[in-house]
Specification:
The protein is mainly α and 561 residues long. Among the domains are: 135 residues; 107 residues, Tetratricopeptide repeat domain (Serine Threonine Protein Phosphatase 5, Tetratricopeptide repeat, Alpha Horseshoe); 33 residues. 73% of the residues lie in helices and 2% in strands. It is elongated, with a radius of gyration of 31 Å. It binds one DNA strand of 10 nucleotides through helix 1, helix 3, helix 5, helix 7 and helix 9. One of its GO terms (biological process) is RNA modification.
Length: 561
Amino acid sequence: MSQKHATTLIKSLCARGAVRHARALFDEMPDRDVVAWTAMLSGYASSGRHREALDLFRSMAAAGVIPNEFTLSSVLTACRAAGGGGAASIHALALRRGVDHMPYVVNALIDAYASRGGGDGLVDARCLFDALGEGRTAASWTSMIAGYARWGQENTGLQLFQNMIQDDVELSPFTCSIAIHACSLVGNLYFGQQIHVLSIRKALGANLAVANSLVDLYCTCASILDARRLFDEMPERNLVTWNTIIVGHSRRDPLMAMQLLVNMDIEPNCLTLTSITSACAGLSALRCGQQVHGAVLRRNYGYDLKVSNALVDMYSKCGNIFNAKKVFNMMTCKDILSWTSMIGGYGMNGYVNEAIKLFNSMVHAGIHPDHVVFLGLISACSHAGLVDEGWNLFRSMLLEYNIQPNKEIYGCVINLLGRAGRLREAFILIDTMPLTPDEYIWGALLGACKMHRNLELGRLAAGKIIEINPDAVKTYILLANICAADSKWGEYAATRVLLRGTGSSKEVGMSWIELSDKMYTFSTADSSSPQVSLADEVLQILVQHMDEAGSEFIDNICRGA
DNA sequence: CAGCGGGTTG
């Protein structure tokens, strides 16, 4: 077999995925010219085996074979995949061989530098890009734009995209979807829509990646209805399409997310199931959540970190702490989210001591806590009335873990103190906190004043809230109630008049319960449905039973067996 | 005989 034939065969073996066979053939060749080496190198590089590609490149140098522009562009692909680290030395080599200006080599260099990221990588890439001038090709533009988008400089990338369009460079679906994705990362709906129009004009709208990135853009930056319209119009959908629309709905319309899953005509993957699990958590739909758990196990996704995290969170939010713990304990590797979900789960279900114990285990495991963990812990203490524990956590957050509390945490601590009646301390904390208190912080104090009938501080807090947001309806009602409780009827009436001035009525808080796959919603003192009156009767009976059986019975219910 | 870029979902 001639050397040319062998080289052709190496290429086609690699193209079919038989890289090992190609290597065996390569090793048997009596002499290998630069073309044979390059074919083998490129085979490795384009199948993701950059380690082998770089090793082969070294062997080639050791064998005294001089690389040419073909070799260098291939080896740059491997550099890029390996993080772009060796790009500079290949660049030097290209200069020495006088091939540094050949289009494939420059483009590969731009891409390798841009993939290295950081400040330098992009600057180096941009230097080469600018020096190209009229010699720029679509590949140069795309590498540069993708580099910016990948390293957090989306707007620079979009600027470049605009220049590319002005330069009349032919737009590919690849570049188009990268640019749309950049728009959705920075929340630039307007530019994204312009690209949408452009993509239709250039007949790229039917491309799946383009359409998918548009669905994502509308999910993140517009209303999910817009996203949904586009989704419904798509003649063809793949798993990414479905996942994009389901993920887009899972937080804002979890019920619709479930409906979409039901309509899905292809096999879901673990991302699908993760976001459906969150949808169940958002709905506290335990039975659905359990079915999804079953689907997860059947597909062997049980060991996926994100799926497990979502399951722990779902069971916690559905009040089934037993299963949450079971999933959590089964996890072989845990990240901070796993711990947060479990700690938060204990907290929100009233198991403060377990939460604190687990928090200590987490710290012991070397995980540095964050705001979310502390929020879960302190709010658990607040609900359980453990003022000192909560306060100590708040202090240690600052002193031991060096985390600056955010407004949410302050709000929580105000609640903690307020519930315990320590209104003065709560007020002082608001007064001395390094952040500007918002209506929610003052709202927490006002709520506590209502609870403990403190008219003086309540008036103050209400005044602050109305200053910030005159339409905060709840404020007037709370203040009015405090006045009423203090028999200040004149002020009560005045406050009610103010309330009418906002032209709004307080929205009704709804509760709901899932029974036999049906969801029932109701509000306080709702006598509109027969189920509610029935539930009321049952509740009376239960209360009677609980009185009789005492705390042991309550304990059992709480453990949710 | 061999070579570059680049896609959308958490």
